[in-house]
Amino acid sequence: MELHVAQALMWIERTNEKIQENKEYLSALDQAIGDGDHGINMARGFQAVIEKTSSSEYETVSDVLKDVAMTLMAKVGGASGPLYGTAFLKMSMSTKGKESVSQEDLAEAVRQALEGMKQRGKATEGEKTLIDVWTPVQELLEQSEDLQPEEIKKTAKDAMEATKNIMATKGRAAYLKERSIGHLDAGSVSSYYLFESLANVLEEGN
Amino acid sequence: MELHVAQALMWIERTNEKIQENKEYLSALDQAIGDGDHGINMARGFQAVIEKTSSSEYETVSDVLKDVAMTLMAKVGGASGPLYGTAFLKMSMSTKGKESVSQEDLAEAVRQALEGMKQRGKATEGEKTLIDVWTPVQELLEQSEDLQPEEIKKTAKDAMEATKNIMATKGRAAYLKERSIGHLDAGSVSSYYLFESLANVLEEGN
Amino acid sequence: MKKIVNDPNQVVQDMLKGLVAAYPESLKQVPDTTVVVRKDAPVTNKVALVSGGGSGHEPAHAGYVGAGMLDAAVCGETFTSPTPDQVFEAIKAVDGSAGVFLVIKNYTGDVMNFEMAAELAEAEGIRVEKVIVNDDVAVEDSSFTTGRRGIAGTVFVHKIAGAKADKGGSLEEVKAVADKVVANVRSMGMALSPCTVPASGKPSFELAEDEMEIGIGIHGEPGIERKTIATADEIAEELTGKILEDMDYTSSEVAVMVNGLGSTPEMELFILNGKVQDILAEKGIKVYKTFVGEYMTSLEMAGCSVSLLKLDDELKELLDSESKAPAFRI
Amino acid sequence: MKKIVNDPNQVVQDMLKGLVAAYPESLKQVPDTTVVVRKDAPVTNKVALVSGGGSGHEPAHAGYVGAGMLDAAVCGETFTSPTPDQVFEAIKAVDGSAGVFLVIKNYTGDVMNFEMAAELAEAEGIRVEKVIVNDDVAVEDSSFTTGRRGIAGTVFVHKIAGAKADKGGSLEEVKAVADKVVANVRSMGMALSPCTVPASGKPSFELAEDEMEIGIGIHGEPGIERKTIATADEIAEELTGKILEDMDYTSSEVAVMVNGLGSTPEMELFILNGKVQDILAEKGIKVYKTFVGEYMTSLEMAGCSVSLLKLDDELKELLDSESKAPAFRI
Ligand SMILES: Nc1ncnc2c1ncn2[C@@H]1O[C@H](COP(=O)(O)OP(=O)(O)O)[C@@H](O)[C@H]1O
Ligand SMILES: Nc1ncnc2c1ncn2[C@@H]1O[C@H](COP(=O)(O)OP(=O)(O)O)[C@@H](O)[C@H]1O
Ligand SMILES: [Mg+2]
Ligand SMILES: [Mg+2]
Ligand SMILES: [Mg+2]
Ligand SMILES: [Mg+2]
To answer: How does it assemble (chains C, D) (predicted)?
Structure first.
């Protein structure tokens, strides 16, 4: 399992496709317990990311991730913009100087991304946010040797689905308290798409 | 055919009943080609009239009509308030000093009422307003000897129904031009109620 | 009908109570009337301005009561002209011996009720003059019909005639400048949704999800044409175009009012304004001042109107002079 | 969705164009941004105030830009916090060497984006301070959660902190008075109908014909409780009651804001205000000043909020001092 520039780009493209396809779904999830813009925000951001990356030349994975970070930061807004922006910026910094990104490198990058997001969002696990998807994925990457991409997908999916039963204490859904239970967290679903796309790219690369 | 205080009061009571019963209908007619308040306006006005007349003692028909005039003037508003107010004021002035009101007196009173309203509204016959009901009734009263109340009713009704085919050039319906054709004029319908009630009272009195 | 009201038949009295409670330092209600006057009324030796009409057009008209604008607003039932006795009370309450000037919107009811009040006032020796505002180009201007309606352009009359009176203008001078405004102001409106009078509880008309009504008034009356809903740019073209057809504004300076009818967000009014300004620029019409907001509403109707007032130096100066009315501070 | 728009994805840019076209003498847009600043920005040696948030709350925030209030408003997409680069552009555009003060409503997105911009600014040597407004008593105030939202009470922060800066207050003094306002202001809102974000085209929630939503925010989020629709008096009791439960206003003087969320007619706001004033009078709370109108909207949502700000002499003076912002003239 190894990530090069081409794969990093493909990861971003696949994520974008998923986001665009599910734009309405993500907004509908956010509508139920938030303000209904998550799909619009993510679709606007990833659209801009694709415009940027498809018209640029990259030497390293880190450079790809940096452009993704800066574009998301400048185009998404809301809560998810700074969070995803921070995540990609931390991953870019963590992979700086590397020719290719190993599983170990990826584990470290995701760890730093997660740390950055937790700090930025003043959030921790169990608050019904995208942190709840990133945490188990990070643990998986760190702990499993010779990881099968399929496992990333499954871990992210299970974690995403588990947000349904959590009562929100961060993000807009927190205003609803008990009423937030029974609904998926929109940001966790978009994070699932991110890891699902990563897994697909890694699978193809194998 | 003769009108005394008791009959004048009954005329007003009957008119009020008709108006209250048909409040929604009058408003609906006004909705179609005006602003939808004619029933509300007339019901508010006649409600106040009844409160006033039922708590007062009257010596003459003229005094009854004056209280009706002043109350309508102060409570109806809109276009119909000053028009009906003027009509009753003119009828009160015209019948002043009379012990009882003959057909001839009534014809003269209605003539003056009609004149007053035409002046007030700068309107003439054929403009799809209540003038179109008052005019034929006034002519009937003036021209027929030994008039049957039934004829007043019929004349007012026919005239009211005929407003349907007129294109409005006065009142709010005038804004609609051709589109005003095909709808009854609300003020003509309330005027019909007035004359219908008068006829009923005269019939009973015979 | 979803409204924040108590008794739907008492909305005007309830509104007036909350209104004078909001601005006790500048407004007062004439006891037992629906008349709102300046706290310091009557102002001696100043021509007093009285306007009014049905309620439901807030901030018109009571929001325009204050130094530099109106002395009194007479508030009728919702969308129903006030009665002559109420207008007469207003005239008496603000008369400061320099005469009273009535600003009347051209509706049969308003004209009749205000004229009857003027007769009552004159019978008591109060000098009264009036102007009848008829800015709505949606309606044909004919002496054989009711003629054009008065809509949002009326606010310019309040402002400018009010300023003239404030600066010591005589009754004749106030009338002259009000006539000038009326001669130079044109408006045109449209709606996306109807409104509901509280006492009736029913929407004033029905529009399909893809329809809009062009040439709408401010009382929930139907407009002159029903069309498929258009873009903001197309709506701006249509409203402004109709006004420019009616009067020649070439190489003149204008004041622009983009007025919301009730539930149209300011966001949309500004979007519309962007195109209105472009159109005027293209035609070489110079914009002196722009007003975007809710100035003459129709309860919670969605829609807007555009008004253009051709200005000369006198009108500019009066438009710019101070106003302390709660809804029109300059 | 019935709206006066062109491209639903371009509403913010289109709005800003129409906004600066309306007030060219007082506002300008920083090129290639969604930032609106005072025409005379940066004002040398004055602490500059920057606020903003998602669009759709007009006249917030751009309507509050002007001498005596904000120096810049950063306009995000509809109901979506603006991005850090835009906030940073605003900070750079208004910095007059006396520091920049950020007024942030307490939403995760707003807080994060503004804080990131502050970091960028500090890295360039610009002094930045901030206040986070959280006046909405509908939401529980807990350090373990997102905490209370910032809603209409924010306008008082703009006004008072803006006046302090205008009078030459230092960055610390501006922050101190802003903190004082936040400590003393509470709000509570309700809705009768949802709103529709142009880019989404769907209503934010659904309410039955006889339902209202209590404890609503300003982004179309669901409220805290759904109830059968009540009278204006009952709504006033509920909103004011919740505020008075939260903070002790006994024998204090207050500023009152009765804020319309978008499509509620002023008539209804005044009716509500009548009862709010009665309740306060009963409790011996003295009203110093009242504001009734649309100050912080939620597109075309029907509903309102009530805010109470406890005043001392400093706050009174700053509340009364001049403001030239288009949407808040004093
Ligand atoms: N404090 C936080 N920490 C981490 N994630 C958060 C936080 N607040 C919100 N989120 C995530 O952001 C998502 C919402 O994003 P989005 O709808 O785009 O922004 P907004 O909430 O500003 O409308 C939520 O579903 C949640 O996963
Ligand atoms: N100029 C006029 N002359 C005579 N009658 C008129 C005139 N204008 C309106 N009317 C009558 O008044 C009626 C409308 O009354 P109403 O709805 O109560 O007042 P408004 O038109 O002010 O809402 C019309 O149906 C018409 O019969
Ligand atoms: Mg959201
Ligand atoms: Mg009518
Ligand atoms: Mg009417
Ligand atoms: Mg959002």
So the answer is: Homodimer. The dihydroxyacetone kinase complex is composed of a homodimer of DhaM, a homodimer of DhaK and the subunit DhaL.
